[in-house]
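Appendix C: a fully annotated inverse folding record. The material below is reproduced so that readers can follow the format used throughout the book. The structure is listed first as tokens, followed by the designed sequence.
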């Protein structure tokens, strides 16, 4: 399995964060087309849109030098989600974002992976501040952001009016 990007490999106690591989597309497609969390937020897409989203993620690494890591369990290699940095056209700042696949929620994977990404963003990219744009009703992601030390004043993201801006100061570990 060859990665499609120059993404580094990050490891934590339970996880490996690596660049996207072709074999990741089916799990991402299932998540984007039918995951209960995506349905609840009204954000499901078609399989074709998931494919375009996957390719956009690969291109993101090429354009910015960062993007979504595929998060897999160290012991099994089973994918549990994506965590990474985004900055789409028209977005004001670099976003720290996470998506966990069905069955992986509530186990601390998003927090564990996001800490690794924050450290890499600071040490590898020199970023001193990251942002998360979290839907007002997404209390699970808000809880992750809080565990990561992020705060919000309720300000809305200019590119996504239903999302609040959460600010993550990035510091030396």
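Designed amino acids, in order:
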């Amino acid at each position: 399995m060859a990665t499609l990007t120059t993404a580094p490999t990050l490891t934590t106690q339970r996880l490996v964060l690596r660049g996207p591989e072709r074999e990741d597309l089916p799990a991402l497609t299932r998540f984007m087309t039918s995951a209960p969390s995506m349905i609840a937020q009204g954000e499901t897409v078609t399989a074709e849109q998931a494919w375009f989203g996957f390719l956009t993620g690969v291109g993101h690494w090429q354009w910015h030098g960062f993007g979504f890591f595929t998060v897999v369990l160290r012991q099994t290699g089973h994918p549990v989600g994506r965590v990474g940095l985004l900055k789409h056209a028209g977005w004001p700042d670099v976003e720290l974002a996470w998506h966990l696949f069905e069955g992986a929620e509530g186990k601390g994977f998003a927090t564990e992976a996001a800490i690794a990404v924050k450290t890499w963003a600071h040490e590898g990219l020199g970023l001193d501040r990251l942002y998360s744009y979290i839907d007002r009703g997404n209390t699970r992601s808000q809880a992750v952001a809080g565990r990561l030390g992020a705060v919000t004043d309720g300000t809305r993201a200019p590119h996504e009016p239903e999302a609040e801006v959460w600010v993550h100061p990035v510091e030396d570990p």
